[in-house]
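Run log // design_07
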């Protein structure tokens, strides 16, 4: 099978896999610079964010893998930022040279792990001037997950108490900042090495999960944002008040956590993130105002995709990982 993808004269890099498996299935291939169709733009990618769904899909796990299993080889990546280089017919919201970011191609198209990506114009927003363009590529999916879980599903209000499991991770570090900015009382779990990190982001209480059980430390909470799933999510149910709700993000264990909540007479909901430019614009305003920052743990070139996935899969990333597609 050829590494070269058809169409166009100019070639660029992309990351693909031909089959599901461990990180070694990721390889760098060449692609033609794609041409946007009606309603689309072509973006010269600066940054491409990595998210847990990326490695789970690569392994053939979850709903996204079912969407793409008959479309391999496939280029992963739902997050990207960069400069618009071409515009399809009917697009009036962007111009060549605009700095944009967005959650693209979800769940079946992907395409962010590349030098160039096609996006629908309605998936993109302008990158705030205050934000480094590569860093912006790590924002959309994780930030939208935190936003939608807290405010759409969890209905978090000012002065309510929220517990965020895994507060120092990609989604978690956004959730801490969003909840703090909304005026909630923020409790977050992490390991000892991330205590100072979460304190600076606005967490009012920080629990070291190695030494403390949240169900013994917290009670009467309005909301739990469960970013861990499994047994950790089930234990956190016991921290809820009578009217409280737990929102669990990992889809693999969502059903069992919801069932456990029902047995306790409590409420729990699963959620799946969706692209939403209106939410993304609200988040961009918080960045412009200095209320939210993005922490990048490590940057990788596209050629190091396998190493990046191995790091991602450890679950011990502080903030976000991002591909710097400007690195040769």
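design_07 sequence
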């Amino acid at each position: 099978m050829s590494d070269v993808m058809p169409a166009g004269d100019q070639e660029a890099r992309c990351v693909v896999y031909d089959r599901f498996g461990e990180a070694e299935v990721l390889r760098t291939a060449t692609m033609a610079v794609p041409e946007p169709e009606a309603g689309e733009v072509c973006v010269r990618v600066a940054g491409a964010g990595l998210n847990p769904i990326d490695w789970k899909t690569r392994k053939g796990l979850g709903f996204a893998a079912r969407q793409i299993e008959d479309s391999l080889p496939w280029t992963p990546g739902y997050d990207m930022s960069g400069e618009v280089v071409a515009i399809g017919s009917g697009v009036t919201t962007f111009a060549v040279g605009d700095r944009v970011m967005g959650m693209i191609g979800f769940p079946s198209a992907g395409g962010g792990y590349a030098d160039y990506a096609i996006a629908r114009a309605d998936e993109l927003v302008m990158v705030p001037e205050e934000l480094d363009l590569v860093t912006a590529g790590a924002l959309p999916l994780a930030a939208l997950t935190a936003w939608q879980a807290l405010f759409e599903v969890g209905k978090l209000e000012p002065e309510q108490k929220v517990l965020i499991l895994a507060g120092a991770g990609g989604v978690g570090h956004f959730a801490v900042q969003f909840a703090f900015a909304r005026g909630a009382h923020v409790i977050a779990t992490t390991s000892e090495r991330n205590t100072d990190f979460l304190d600076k982001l606005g967490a009012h209480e920080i629990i070291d999960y190695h030494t403390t059980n949240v169900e013994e430390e917290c009670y009467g909470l309005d909301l739990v944002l469960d970013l861990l799933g499994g047994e950790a999510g089930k234990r956190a149910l016991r921290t809820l008040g009578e009217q409280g709700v737990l929102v669990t993000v990992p889809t693999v264990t969502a059903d069992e956590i919801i069932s456990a909540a029902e047995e306790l007479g409590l409420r729990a909901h699963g959620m799946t993130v969706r692209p939403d430019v209106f939410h993304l614009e609200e988040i961009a305003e918080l960045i412009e105002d200095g209320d939210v920052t993005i922490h990048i743990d490590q940057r990788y070139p596209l050629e190091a995709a396998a190493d990046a996935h191995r790091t991602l899969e450890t679950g011990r990333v502080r903030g976000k990982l991002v591909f710097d597609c400007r690195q040769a």
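The longest helix spans residues 140-153.
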